[in-house]
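Action item from last week, closing it out:
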Amino acid sequence: MSAVPQPPTPPRTPPPLPRRIRLKLKRIYLDLTGPRVEREWRRTWSLIDPIEGWLMEGQDRWLFDTAYSLPSPANIVEIGSFKGRSTCFLASGCRGTGKRVFAIDTFNGNDCDFGYRDFFEEFSQNVNRCGLSEYVQPVVGTSSDVAKTWNKPVHLLFIDGSHRYEDVLSDFDGFFPHVAPGGIVALHDVSEAWPGPLRAWHEIAKHRLVDVSHCLSLAYGRKPASGTA
């Protein structure tokens, strides 16, 4: 008597992957298939986030997106760079283009706001580690001295140096004539905690700009296309 054939054993369903592995695979998939700007941002943030600085959440992405949106070539002037956190977010938006960030700072701090002096070496190490050296030109000196001999058009001006009212105003007045019509001007720390930038923005800067807006304590606008403001 012949044996009765048995139905084939159904394949065993593999157990689900742990959540952390599924998330990692999702990130890899997005890195390979997502929009280029999103891929660049994810790579940018993980490299730059360890750098010390005072940007609020969301302002890092604003700097990156704004630099990324500029046509190439373009000149970005940053006044106040410290250890390079904001510098690197700006420069990451320049990767693969002819855009450049001019990072103006004494890199020596002061006795009031910093616990130590001379952080140029750490700034340089951070920029190099992020692979952004070709997009960053450090300009060592006071912003007022640099403004006296500046001769390049500026397409994005980011003011985040001394927060004394007179100094913020000096930075604005010194570089605003070089901002190209339609160029962007941004001031950091426009908040009640910092009366200098707050006063300079509300009394002077915002009245010389159009399309003004805020990203938390970062206030910005565009120089009128006519260049008459």
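Closing note: Residues 101 and 197 are 22 Å apart (CA to CA).
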